Model the fold of this input.
Amino acid sequence: MTDAKIEALLARVAAALERQAPPPPAESNFDAADAFVWHADREFLEPVKTVNRVDIALLQGVDRVRDILLDNTRRFAQGLPANNVLLWGARGMGKSSLVKAVHAAANAEKPHALVLVEIHREDIPSLPRLLSRLRHTTRRCILFCDDLSFDNQDASYKSLKAVLEGGIEGRPDNVVLYATSNRRHLLSRDMIENERSSAINPGEAVEEKVSLSDRFGLWLGFHACDQQTYLAMVHGYATHYGLAYPDDKLKAESSEWAITRGARSGRVAWQYIQDLAGRLGKTLG
Done:
């Protein structure tokens, strides 16, 4: 075989390998938006132009945790030290809504100071790759994971532990993690009990898993609301969106709505307002 034929053959082999190789990760333009969603399979940060959120003034019954989270976020936006935050507790009480509202409030005070980056719970193992990208941007980033928890046979919590504290590189100075969960310790009771029953030293095994939540500097608890707070949520939404409706009917209908669902929460209040707006022919823009 001549040199020319060998060269042509090698060129064909190289071209075939090039076609089979995965494409290089897309470059991240952190100036494209103030919010992004991380897609681990493509290693791509997708810009979100319009974030699904409510105004911070509409979040009722969470005044104390709202002020704590807002202060922590303001300090972070100013380039000062800030803590990772775990927002835990009752369903539908505004944990994820508060994170998004606080991000908007901080950026309203200091435009484009913060980037909100959402990572899905199943993509936690890709955290080191995501942080390597965030490390090289000059913008300050809130890494947001909604509904974070771990079940049996799920070892991805170890990736999160290493990122929060203890890894060689550590968490970048321009990144904090805000996570929401219904569980204060992020782990199911069955998971903790299995560790206790199967480990040589049950205390150490359980301590190793429970220590995950200890790596969050702030724990903010959300608890089920009472009737007065629930009605304040409903009235606040109705006023904000200009839904003209008699107060006595608003109170009676929203109370019945909560009873049929067996719970009072901000989510239930919002669901009632959506129903009311639909009946009144109003949009919630």
